[in-house]
Amino acid sequence: MAGASSYSGLVDKTFWMILGSSVIMLVGITVTMIYFIVKYRRSKHPHAKDIEGSATLETLWTVLPTVLVMVMFYYGWAGFKVMRDTPAGATPVTVQARMWSWSFKYENGKQTTELVVPVGRPVAVKLESADVIHSFFVPAFRLKEDCVPGRDNHAWFQAEREGTYDILCAEYCGDQHSTMLAKLVAVHPDTFDVWIEQGGGRPTGQKLLQLKGCVACHTSDGSKLVGPSFKGIYGHTVKVMTNGVEREVMVDDEYIRRSLREPNADIVVGYQPQMPALGNQLDEEDIQLIIDYIKRQ
Description:
The protein is of the alpha+beta class. It is built from six helices and 13 strands. The strands form three sheets. A five-stranded mixed β-sheet has the order 3-2-1-5-8, with no helix packed on it. Strands 4-10-9-6-7 form a five-stranded mixed β-sheet, with helices on one face. Strands 12-11-13 form a three-stranded antiparallel β-sheet, with no helix packed on it. A hairpin with a 2-residue loop joins strand 11 and strand 12 (245-250). The longest helix is centred in the first third of the chain and has 32 residues, at 8-39.
């Protein structure tokens, strides 16, 4: 796929240079090996004898690989420096990774599940993880950087043409790793300015569940994933493990509120304690919107 970011050409050039060098070395070494096998086969040389060394050959196979490695280093360093030096005035976006979804937060507070960016303008992404190590990977942009819990990381890119591009996680992060997908939408700068000026506003309960990655583990149609489905659960009793003791609890407002703030306090029987605490990411109004949404399922 042709690169779609400002530095994808540099990355591709480095890739093809290293690949081409590797192929040439492979062919050269293989041909030399076959030559020696044929030339010094036992039928032609039944008695082994010493071969004197060659200063010329030893110099060549020392100098040439050293030069090749230094050329690779130069191209790699040049590309790395460009990719790490964020241009001034870049549009800031916070990328929030969690098992198993992506969400994106803009400077004005707007939150989305798609990364919308303007064509021709640099975008600076701050990379965060709520749980384990993820890797923010946009193949068409030749961009891959890790999201590490408890540690700040960053990257930048500039989309060169309009379109919709895949975002993947390139670091194995658990059961639903392969479903950790999102879209990057590159639009005309004027379109982006109108879109971003619309602001965020408070998301609905359903939107909050998407933004916080809840739909990666919970469904609303009764099917089971990593966690129980929301469908028909409100107002019913469920069996949970509390401090190692099985008991039955009613799924009401207080149970949902506690599950969001302390997800490991009551583990529904048959499921593993994998849910991260969301208490510090949701205020009381957000929690109530989620409760109201689950009530309607």
